[in-house]
Amino acid sequence: MTTSEPLDGRVSADAENSAWRLFHGDGERREIPFPAAPPWRRFAPLEPINSAEVSRPRPYLIDRDEADVVNAALHLRRPLLVTGQPGTGKSSLAHAVAHELGLDRVLQWPVNSRSTLQDALYQYDAVARLREATLRRDTDEDGTAPDIGQYIRLGPLGSALVSRKRPRVLLIDELDKGDVDLPNDLLTVFEEGEFAIPELSRLNDGGMPVHVQTDDPDTTAPVTRGRVRCSEFPVVIITSNGERDFPPAFLRRCVRLDLPDPDERRLREIVAGHLGPDALDGADDLLREFLGRRATGELATDQLLNAVFLRKGGVDLDAKSLLEAVLHRLGGAV
Question: For position 291, what pLDDT does the model report?
Answer without folding.
Answer: 86
